[in-house]
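Agenda item 2: guanine complex prediction
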Amino acid sequence: MPATLIDGKATAARMTAEIADDAAAFQHATGIVPHLVAVLVGDDPASAVYVRNKQRACEKAGLKSTLHRLPIETTEPQLLDLIEQLNGDSTVHGILVQLPLPTHVREQVILDAVIASKDVDCFHPHNVGLLVQGRPRFLPCTPAGCQRLLAEYKIETAGAHAVVLGRSEIVGKPMAMLLVQRGAVADATVTICHSRTRELASIVRQADILIAAIGKPRFVTADMVKPGAVVIDVGINREGDKLVGDVDFEPVSQIASAITPVPGGVGPMTIATLLRNTLTAAQLSVG
Ligand code: GUN
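Presented output:
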C-alpha cells in the first residue's frame, strides 16, 4: 500500500492561522506587533527565495518583517555593526541571518553576535543549551517543524527507533535532541548517522522513523527503508529546475507507511516555526 502523504503545506497553513490568532491577541493586549528582521548578504538566488517566503509568511500571520539586503562585499565588522544595532533596537523582536554567508565572513562569529533573546533560529549557545536541557526558549525551526508533523499525523514516537541522517547544527543535532527528550512526540531511541558512519544502510534500515537531512539528492533508496517506516525528508536539492529531497521518493513511498514530499513537506513547517519563535520573542520582550 502506498504511504500516507504527510502534507506540510496544509499543516503549516493551520499553524500560521493559530499564530495569527495569538499575535492578534498579543497585539490587542500590548499594542506590539511582533517584528522579524532578516539579514541577507549577497545575491544567492535560493537564499533570496527562502527569505521572500519567510517575509510572505510573516505577512500572513500579521507579523511585521523587514529585510536588510547587503552586498556580497559586506565585511565582518560591517555585519557585526548591523547586528549590534538590531540587538539594541527594542522595536525588533527576532533577528534572522540567512545562511550561507559569503566565505570571507565567519559564520560562527556572526551567529554568536545575535543576542540570545532575539535568536529566532535557535542557534545561540545559550538557546542550544536550554534545548539540550529540555527547557527550550526558542524551537529549532526545521526540527520542531518535523516534530509537529509527527504530532499532527499521530505517529508514535515513544520507544520508537528514530534514525537521524545528518549531524548539522541546524537540523541533525537539534532534531535528535528533540526526539530524545522526555515527553510528548519524543521519548524515542535516537541514532544519529553521518558521512563517517559504518554500515549506514543497515542502521537506517532499523528506523521506525527516519529523518533524512544529509543534503544528498535521493540518497535514501528503497532498500534502506524498513517496511512501514515513517520517512521525513528534510533535503532540498536542485536537479535542473526540479527540487528533490534526500529520499528517492517514488520507490520509498511504496514501502514507507507515511512520507513527506519535497516540496510541500518540511519546508513550510520550518517557516511556520520561525513565525512562532518571533511571536515568542515579542512575548518575552514584555516580561
Ligand atoms: N539557510 C537554510 N536554512 C536556514 C535556516 O533555517 N535559517 C537560516 N538563518 N538560514 C538558513
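Discussion summary: The longest strand covers residues 35-41.
Owner for follow-up: CH.
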